[in-house]
Amino acid sequence: MMDRNKEQHPQKDKKDSQLEEFRVSDAGEAMTTNQGVRISEDEHSLKAGERGPTLMEDFHFREKLTHFDHERIPERVVHARGFGAHGYFQVYKPMTKYTKAKFLQDPSIKTPVFVRFSTVAGSRGSADTVRDARGFATKFYTEDGNFDLVGNNIPVFFIQDALKFPDLVHAFKPEPHNEIPQASTAHDTHWDFVASNTESAHMIMWTMSDRAIPRSYRMMEGFGVHTFRFVNDQGEAHFVKFHWKPLLGVHSLVWDEAQKIAGKDPDFHRRDLWEAIEMGNYPEYEFGVQIIREDEEFNFDFDILDPTKIWPEELIPVQRIGKMTLNRNVDNVFAETEQAAFHVGNVVPGIDFSNDPLLQGRLFSYTDTQLIRLGGPNFHEIPINRPVAEVHNNQRDGYHRMTINRGQTSYHKNSLGNNAPRPVSEQEGGYVHYQEKVDGRKVRARSDSFKDHYTQAKLFWNSMSDVEKQHIIKAFRFEVGKVKSKNVQQQVVDMFANVDLLLAEKIALGVGVNPPKAGEEASGTAAARGAHAQASPALSQLHTAMSPATRKVAVLAADGFDADEMKAVLDAFAEAGVVPEVVSENLGMIAGTDGRRLEAVHTFLTADSVLFDAVYVAGGEQSIDKLLVIKEAANFVTEAYNHFKTIGASAPAIRLLSGSGMHLADASASSGHLTSPGEDTGLVIRKETEDGSVFARQLVDAIAMHRHWGREMQMNSPFK
Where is the sequence biased in composition, kind Basic and acidic residues (predicted)? Predict the structure, then answer.
């Protein structure tokens, strides 16, 4: 019987025949370069010694990275969805002891900066609140040239060698046969890569934690990830890691909320950043450094050059040396945010590189990527990328050249142009690389000191509170539960038994595979296994700064709201920097009990509780009566309650709260008393005899707590 598809689609068959010679199966074949040369090693780039720098003669590395850098047009391969802002940086005190970088010396100097925040995995059209690492890239426009600190909101990375970066991204991007799923790692190829590359264990613990669903870019840490060097005027070097610490603290969404926001407002994070700056609530981050002397390089039970490892803050404290303030939004997203070209190789005198193999590979890859993305070698002339320092060299022409160079000569050395421009000495500000002694055989290998893949993943787990551990378990169950291959699911469970046996058992139970065998939890070395009992309090978000400032509160009200109570609450909000927005049945003005009017800027159709940090249900019998007949009002409060947010209300509003299905303990409309603070500090109910200003202060204090995790632990028993 003739194939019906062939009968109906003769042109398709003809085209298929034309394409047949281009179809290739890699099954069972030896790996080669694009020139057909067989490859003997695809895990390690070529280095001068096991811990030495990457060598540019590694043709396989260059070919693989070049091909990967040019795979996507026109948006970025990774970090495609981003949003930026301008600002300035000021150092607190001179850092002369450690570095000669001029922008880190004079506290009176404001160094201009541009920051681009981003997600990593999704396309430019994906949502802001997906579970993902976040980019935190900062361009300092210093008098010595541009310094780019190209970081993330997670201090470690998936892999240890840049040679594997294309493999990583291919694995976590949508699967190529159906381009599904978008902006999510909850699929087979990602988790197959994880289980097959156990160096990713530590990063996975971070991405399964609340760190991967931040509340705001303004409440997100930033990390340089890699080990760099500070070099001072005497040529002395120190190893350094860079940090950004948000003054508002580090806070996250809950998973259900993050998913709903993706539908309600996929621009949630960029809108939050834009509106905060427009309102004058300028995001602020302190710049921190961890510093290690060169003679201390081997004093730790981890390799300080390993990008899958942190330097625990309890061992190497973070010194906060300056502050960055973002105070201006872009004028045009494309011209500034999208054309911004960052590069880890953009450093200034006083900052140099280490032999971190992932960093070494990035030094090549970024320039190569910008060439294809921005159409040629002159991307540095796009306004957002131009340094404030003058530029003079013999580079000429190329796509999109803006500079009109005068003169006859464009080469060095020359006599016709009096040898201008000329190189300058270190004393004149010329950049001189740190003279590190390098001695080793050319090898494709990785130091044994990089082989412990689980100790710091365990450290992260041990450092989490019970509620944070519960979130990690649920994240694993969601992500691995979406994997179709039972074999891959089992591999993931067995892998993370090396991090924590309870964690692996809970994942196995949730996804329906065999639990790991007792005793499989291990890390390779006796020292590593001993470190499994360690914890780092700095890793838990429960130890972060708590502030009500810039928190966005939905004020549910209708005509007849209690004007005196409303005034007390709004006055307290203004004093604390809380941002209230009135939500009512219709847009426009609503009147209080004394005739005072407020503007409703949202309706229950245009707003949702997931877009706010807290809810205040205004008092007033008439207002409450109107809200009671609006089903969405009760849903609004219920959802905020289920996301562990602060809810404030006066005694009459208990009718609305009760209708939402909350457990109001001994609450009653007659007494107005709800619970003691120890039971649920996030439910703030004004007693009938209580002064409005007292209630307002209690409400502000509760909003500052971000979430009330005791409520979650009551609703969801730990680790069930």
Answer: 1-26, 39-50
Active site positions, annotated: 79, 152
DSSP states along 157-205: -S-SSGGGHHHHHHHHSPBTTTTBSTT---SHHHHHHHHH-GGGHHHHH
Is there a domain that residue 442 lies in?
no
- Average pLDDT over every residue of 467-494: 98
Question: Does residue 560 share a domain with residue 536?
Answer: no
Q: Are 629 and 666 in contact (CB under 8 A)?
A: no
Q: Which range among 68-77, 181-190, 544-553, 682-691 shows the weakest confidence by mean pLDDT?
A: 68-77
Counting the structural domains of the chain, the total is 3
Known binding residue 62? Answer is no
Tell me which long-range contacts 450-453 makes (C-beta under 8 A, separation of at least 24).
Answer: 450/160, 450/199, 450/303, 450/306, 450/308, 451/524, 452/302, 452/523, 452/524, 452/525, 452/528, 453/198, 453/199, 453/201, 453/202, 453/308, 453/498, 453/523, 453/524
Based on the domain organization, do 170 and 261 belong to the same domain? yes
Q: Is 116 annotated as a binding residue?
A: yes
Residues 499 and 525 in one domain: yes
pTM: 0.89
pLDDT digits (tens, 9 = 90+) for 406-419: 889 888 888 998 88
User: Which residue range(s) make up the domain with 569?
Assistant: 552-715
Q: Quick one: DSSP state of residue 252?
A: B
Which pLDDT score is estimated for 605?
96
3-state secondary structure of 381: helix
Contact residues for 602 (Cβ-Cβ < 8 A; gap 6+) = 554, 581, 582, 583, 584, 587
Task: Answer yes or no: is 131 within a domain.
Answer: yes
Residues 6+ apart with CB under 8 A from 400: 374, 375, 376, 378, 379, 381
Q: 534 and 459 in contact (C-beta within 8 Å)?
A: yes
**Backbone φ, ψ for residue 75 (5° rounding):** -80, 170
Asked if pLDDT for residue 532 goes beyond 90, the answer is no
The answer to whether the annotation marks 320 as part of a ligand binding site is no
- Confidence at residue 528, expressed as pLDDT on a 0 to 100 scale: 45
324 CB neighbour count, 10 Å cutoff: 22
Residue 4 domain-assigned?
no
Residue 6 lies in a domain: no
pLDDT in tens, 585-597: 999 999 999 999 9
For the segment 455-462, the average pLDDT, to the nearest whole number, is 97
> Higher-confidence residue: 656 or 104?
104
Q: What is the DSSP letter of 4?
A: H
